[in-house]
Design a protein that fits this description.
Shape: globular
Structural class: alpha+beta
Helix content: 40-55%
CATH superfamily of one domain: Bacterial muramidase
Low-confidence stretches: 2-24
Strand content: 5-15%
Strand order of the largest sheet: 6-5-8-7
Mean pLDDT: 92
């Protein structure tokens, strides 16, 4: 989460691929030169013990597979190839089962944060198939690899490495034993370290925030994440629309933030299936179906909120459609 479109790191599909391959590919120790200044910075700014951090990084490894994976996000696939990854019977039935087993927790979270149960369930389904695939890389390895061996995003991942060490200290976790995705996303909802610190909640009140094995904390934290990013209770998420003429092309952009009113959409040949409030704003999305007939959708504020989890229209649409299938079949 919290990555711009340059690189998408919260991809359940890629995480699953890497998990399936294992971590036996080429690895090497972290270069001591790269960690020396980082350790001194953590000691000075956050009062870490220098010897303890040296011990932590002595165990960290640079993984070539992580460097390979970061260059090929699943969201780069066309929609007709991306959709079947998440919209399939095992994931739909798994969502129904997860919902049934956690119905009271989902109801409580939905009432407190205003986020529909199907969206909470779908996020967990897209990210880790309801906790079945939480990642097999040590988080310290993932973040060290990307912080010290991936120059294009080293600044971002260096920051996430700091956040991870702070999180581990706050939650009383061993930083060398936490497992996650190739990009350091953790637990059932695949929170990165900064998101864990900001948005994870102790939803069952047991004194800890456990996103690996505690369904209450997982469900509450996902709902809290959306609420904090501006989720609007009972408001629309997205509408499939029809277009006439070529005026719609002026509204297509890579900016996912809603900016067009229903009146502006209509003016450019876009027909909404239902009447929306005059003040509502949306963004026009064109999806490649693999045929000569693409699909057109308008994503409203809540659709945009889903993209704050992963900055991709494909991702947000997969979450929405998976949630709808789960809700309808349940």
């Amino acid at each position: 989460m919290r990555l711009r479109r340059l690189l998408i790191i919260s991809s359940g599909f890629i995480a699953l691929c890497i998990a399936g391959l294992g971590v036996t590919a080429s690895t090497r120790p972290v270069d001591e030169k790269n960690t020396r200044d980082f350790i001194k910075e953590m000691v000075k700014q956050h009062k870490f013990d220098e010897k303890e951090l040296e011990e932590v990084f002595s165990k960290a490894r640079i993984h070539q597979r992580i460097l390979d994976a970061i260059a090929r996000p699943a969201e780069a696939k066309p929609w007709h190839e991306y959709r079947p990854i998440f919209l399939n019977e095992p994931r739909i039935q798994g969502g129904i089962k997860f919902w049934n087993e956690n119905a009271l927790l989902l109801k409580k979270a939905s009432e407190k944060y205003g986020v529909p149960p199907e969206i909470i369930v779908a996020i967990i389904g897209v990210e880790t198939r309801y906790g079945q695939h939480k990642g097999r890389y040590p988080v310290i390895d993932s973040l060290s690899t990307l912080a010290f061996a991936y120059p294009p995003r080293s600044s971002f991942f260096r920051s996430e490495l700091k956040q991870f060490l702070l999180m581990a200290r706050e939650e009383k976790l061993d930083p060398t034993s936490q497992m996650g995705s190739y990009a350091g996303a953790m637990g059932m909802p695949q929170f990165i370290s900064s998101s864990f610190r900001r948005y994870a909640v102790d939803f069952d009140g047991d004194g800890s925030r456990d996103l690996w094995d505690n369904n209450a904390d997982v469900i509450g934290s996902v709902a809290n994440y959306f609420k904090r990013h501006g989720w609007q209770k009972d408001e629309p998420i997205t509408d499939r629309v029809t277009v006439q003429g070529k005026g719609y092309r002026k509204l297509l952009s890579y900016d996912l933030e809603p900016q067009w009113t229903p009146k502006q959409l209509h003016k450019h040949g876009i027909k909404l299936p239902v009447k929306r409030q005059k003040s509502e704003k949306g963004t026009l999305i064109k999806l490649d179906t693999g045929t000569k007939q693409p699909e057109f959708w308008v994503g409203w504020q809540n659709f945009y909120v889903i993209t704050r989890y992963n900055h991709s229209a494909h991702y947000s649409m997969a979450v929405y459609q998976l949630g709808e299938e789960i809700r309808q079949q349940r």
